[in-house]
Design brief:
single chain, about 375 residues, alpha+beta, 5-stranded mixed beta sheet, 3-stranded mixed beta sheet, 14 helices
């Protein structure tokens, strides 16, 4: 007779995920190790990972991540969900072949048209251009249109950057620097090729370490992959199983942390579009009211979301008035105690706006 699986409620799942995300207490860890532990960081806003690491690591300095990016040990490129992620170079090489179907499906579903084009010839031409020098998508499209003048230039460029292993180059993504989004091939940037054989079981293991316990649908939501049930079933002998309040089967690594649901969770300021809020099919473990996760325009590190008692309870934004930096905190409901939020908010301000002379935290 099968033994009933242990029930994990929303708070138990919340605390387990926060513990793995280093959001119950900051940890001492090199930034590169943290990026790998998190299985990559959402990086559509190039500076968001800096806030994401600051809120998780003791003593994190922005320069540490900038040096990793400039040394090409951490890179930004399209991966999970076909969105831009910051990952270590070695994770890029391992993850990219696994999510290739996600990129192909994303391109097929996008409003781009390369029908009638010899796609292998297009990709070969794109590779040659990008390995001569990094290009923006408009620059790449213009050069490709010289060979395929009857086709839409933007569609030609999008085909190359969706279907080929490409990355964005510096200074994009470097703290306090800006630059257009320019692309080159991963091989040109790293001097290495992606792994020859996809290993989806490694991605499942890494996901559970960072986001578990989780359902198969959760893993598919985070990665963009489909039909992962077979992969998880093959790993089942090495995994623990639970059930959630809806009866769905949850999988987890045997020795992963699962704290008491009553473990205190301090206020935490997350960057916009942090993966914590996006990486489960059922977001109830962190989002209770169905609130939309905002993605503001710009480089990032000026807007984000607020966790109170471990759940998404508000938003924040930073403005600058001469020598005064102001953090505007907008909780969804009046907090019972503003002081710990204000203290954490002032620390965020001092990290994000280093050259101000006055720091002010204001509650809406």
């Amino acid at each position: 007779m099968n033994r009933p699986r242990e029930l994990l409620g929303a708070r138990a799942l919340n605390r387990a995920t926060l513990a793995r995300q280093a959001l119950l207490e900051r940890v001492t860890m090199p930034a590169l190790d943290a990026i790998e532990h998190l299985a990559g960081m959402q990086a559509q806003a190039p500076h968001s990972p800096y806030v994401g690491l600051w809120t998780r690591l003791r003593g994190f300095r922005a320069q540490e991540l900038s040096e990793l990016i400039e040394a090409r040990r951490a890179i930004r490129g399209p991966l999970m969900r076909a969105t831009l992620h910051l990952v270590s170079a070695r994770d890029w090489l391992a993850f990219r072949p696994v999510v290739q179907p996600v990129l192909e499906r994303g391109f097929a579903g996008a409003p781009f048209d390369v029908s009638g084009v010899d796609v292998p010839a297009l990709l070969a031409a794109g590779r040659g251009l990008l390995e001569q020098r990094p290009l923006t998508r408009p620059e790449l499209g213009g050069l490709l249109a010289e060979r395929w003048p009857e086709r839409d230039a933007a569609s030609l460029a999008q085909a190359v950057t969706y279907l080929m292993p490409v990355v964005q180059v510096t200074p994009r993504g470097v703290w306090r620097k800006n630059g257009q989004a320019r692309w080159t091939t991963a091989e040109a940037w790293l001097g290495r090729t992606v792994d020859a054989e996809p290993a989806p079981e490694r991605i499942v293991d890494r996901y559970l370490a960072a986001f578990g316990p989780a359902t198969v649908k959760d893993i598919q939501t985070w990665s963009g992959l489909t039909r992962l049930g077979e992969v998880v079933d093959a790993l089942r002998p090495w995994l623990r199983t639970f059930r959630d309040e809806q009866g769905a089967e949850l999988f987890d690594l045997p020795d992963a942390p699962r704290p008491d649901p009553d473990t205190p969770a301090p206020p935490r300021f997350l960057p916009e579009y942090d993966n914590l809020l996006l990486s489960h099919a059922d977001r109830g473990r962190v989002i209770r009211g169905g609130e939309r996760v905002p993605l503001q325009p710009g480089l990032g590190a000026r807007y984000g979301t607020l966790l109170l008692d471990g759940f998404f309870r508000g938003t924040w934004r930073i403005t600058r008035h001469r020598d005064t930096a102001v953090l505007h905190v907008e909780p969804f409901a009046p907090p019972s105690d503003r002081d710990p939020i204000a203290a954490e908010g002032e620390a965020l301000l001092r990290f994000a706006v280093e050259d101000a002379s006055t720091y002010d935290v204001r509650f809406r």
